[in-house]
Design brief:
Layout lengths: L4 H31 L6 E2 L2 E2 H32 L6
Antiparallel strand pairs: 1-2
Helix pairs in contact: 1-2
Length: 85
Amino acid sequence: MELTETQRHYWQKNLRITAILLGVWFFVTFVVGYFARDLSFIFFGWPFSFWVGAQGALIVYVLIIGFYAWYMNRLDQEHGVAEEN
């Protein structure tokens, strides 16, 4: 099956945003978590390393999911493949 130029463009944008968001996820999960103990200061009354592990990462994960859903809905409408309500 041969893809049209519109389908190819849609898929490239999908892969690009997925790669960017996976990069953000990796950075928050591993890089910030790894260096959090070195950042020893109090943040909202808790040590920063605890806050990153317990709260900060979860907030970023929810933001990633929300942004991806918003972006893909916009991309679907742009390419005429949006689901109708």
